[in-house]
Amino acid sequence: MVDLRSQYLEIKPEIDRNIQEVIDSCAFINGPAVKSFQQDLEKYLNVKHVIPCANGTDALQVSMMALGLQPGDEIISVSFTFIATVEVISLLGLTPVFVDVDPDTFNIDPEAIERAITPKTKAIIPVHLFGQSAPMEEIMEIAGRYNLYVIEDACQAIGSDYYFTDGSSRKTGTIGEIGCTSFFPSKNLGCYGDGGAVFTQDDKIADQLRIIVNHGMAVRYYHDCIGVNSRLDSLQAAILKVKLKHLDEYAQKRREAADYYDKAFSGHPKLKIPYRYPKSNHVFHQYTLVTKNIDRKGLQDYLASKEIPAMIYYPVPLHLQKAFKDSRYKSGDFPVTEALANSVVSLPMHTELDAEQLSHITKSVLEFVNR
To answer: What is the pTM of this model?
Structure first.
């Protein structure tokens, strides 16, 4: 689904030099490379505080810890996402409340949010799924009326912009109280291992986040609260510093690949191309088709026979997973989410896709669906 080797070869001299500098310094934990990348990312996102951490899941967990959420507090999010978004809610003894998504964007439905709010609701976690923003203006308005926190899961949409009705724009992850991202290797901004970060404009929240990711310490060996050990190591930061300079270029290459796919599949009665939300610039972490009246598993197998990977994100909604078995939810509760889980398929999407590869992929898909 991604071609990390070809991407690496394009930037190999810079990557190798930065890695060697870290090795020569032996500053492997919280070294200068981490601080330098943090500052670069703050400037790119136009956000006051970036707190690096070990991975995107930790980013979500420490965000909730920093806000002082207590067991029993309800957190509204979606069932159509990777499990990490909701997994950490349960790990902290909080109560996940699922809502449905918009059938076009696949992102959280603001009307569904408002219907789900109770006196126990404390926060909303919108997921900027597959590379474009959730409807943040509506979400922030709801959060303001009900005095709720907003934690943005921007793990799939770093670099995407959200456009407000007043003409201003903000990067995803910098609009709510806290934003979270992952630097997993396949992400648009990915390192060569695990990594993540938390963003905030709030000085007090930032101070608390820094304490929590460092065992609850502001001063070494003096523990102000129960924290975790969650760090972005210096080698990964050195790699990310190089790749951040190319992030907008990578996004444009992904859009060009998506344009090619769109042209090939647009108007096909059995394929619905991704909707591009006009209030966000899509960075295409995934290119996801909705299939209609075709054998999706058969399509996957046929593409595999042509050496083309195709993935289903996500085959089972979270409210129907064994891990989240709950008497509050049953099959049929979230019709849009369940319909998407039964029909979506994602094609290869990365910065190294060339015309020959795209032609092979699109022709192969059409060969199967036109049978």
So the answer is: 0.96
